[in-house]
Amino acid sequence: MARELCRTEGLTDVQDDILKTVRAFVDNRIIPVATELEHADAYPAEIVEGMRELGLFGLTIPEEYGGIGESLLTYALVAEEIARGWMSVSGIINTHFIVAHLLMHHGTEEQKRHYLPKMATGEIRGAFSMSEPGCGSDVSAIRTRATPHDGGYLINGQKMWLTNGGSSTLVAVLVKTGAAAGPAHRNLTTFLVDKPAGFGEVAPGLTVPGRIEKMGYKGVDTTELVFDDYGIAASQILGGEPGRGFYQMMDGVEVGRVNVAARGCGVAWRAFELGVAYAQQRETFGRPIADHQAVLFRLAEMGTKVEAAHQMMVRAARKKDFGERNDLEAGMAKYLASEYCAQVVEDSFRIHGGYGFSKEYEVERLYREAPMLLIGEGTADIQRMIIGRRLLEDYKLR
């Protein structure tokens, strides 16, 4: 199938080569097995090992720490390609990239040299944790607390919606450390929690309960993380200083929102591919349904949405790469790409008719995966709040 949508201008030869390699990996190693693994809710161990062999876990990690040293744009385009094959796989690398970003931009030199080389090879796998059962998007409502104890800290509380909770070996965890009466954003600290992969009580005072059953986004393990007097050294504070966790995590979330936008582009792109192919194969009233105006118009809208979301995602990634503030662009990209993804997937589902409801067809899986993007890394309503406030900053009457 010719590839006309989701082209990105101005890429280097290295970026083009990386994307061609990843696209071939997706076509040959992910798409043929994705639906079967997804229906079984099976962890894609062979796919993950393939990504390690390609060096994807070190894609954005600087060369001095053993990585490839590529940009956020390259990372986003790789995530888009992988999500086109199976969104769950892109989730496996997303949290890893966010933790690597946090270490690269906020970690001490000792922390960088300890973690990044092993993260680049995939020996250490990263996850990050902000959400809790009662706080959702309200980060200031975090209750998990780290209290000073014997030169270090004891952590108590419960974290929620931890992607790669079981398979990760390093978790960046946001907890409270300051006085309850102080400003919320100054009371939060990010700890780097080492743990073995697995479930149950993986370390004294640290429990990873079983995987949370989900409607979609299967294969990847989503868990809780429970702390009960878990002891941790002060040296495991990201950057070495408490009270900086809110700013660190918000920086990471901007990266995560670009990733969610990229995933939305990838899933929508695949839904379009499936829809446009089926519309040319399925015949009604003596001709392919693609010749009927209603279906033709639907395809036109789908293709336009895929392309618009891709270009906005690229802009958000490039702005971050330039070192500029990109919360507005990342919010817009995440909001538009996730909304358009849901719409494009539903349109593809409609084109498939009754067959779209069958588990034998790939679009059924996409239909269950798309809703996660509407809430991941901040809901649509949260994005609208961020976008609206930033626009008022830019257009405030003087």
Summarize the structure.
Helices cover 52% and strands 15% of the residues.
What does this structure look like?
This protein has 398 residues and is an alpha+beta fold. The protein has ten helices and ten strands. The chain has helices spanning 13-40, 45-54, 72-85, 87-106, 109-121, 245-281, 293-321, 327-352, 362-375, 380-394; strands at 126-129, 145-149, 152-163, 170-176, 188-194, 200-203, 206-208, 222-233, 283-284, 287-288. The protein has a five-stranded antiparallel sheet, with helices on one face. Strands 1-4-5 form a three-stranded mixed sheet. Helix 3 crosses helix 6 (245-281), helix 3 packs antiparallel against helix 7 and helix 6 (245-281) runs antiparallel to helix 7. The longest helix is centred in the middle third of the chain and has 37 residues, at 245-281. The radius of gyration is 21 Å and the shape is globular. The N and C termini lie far apart (53 Å).
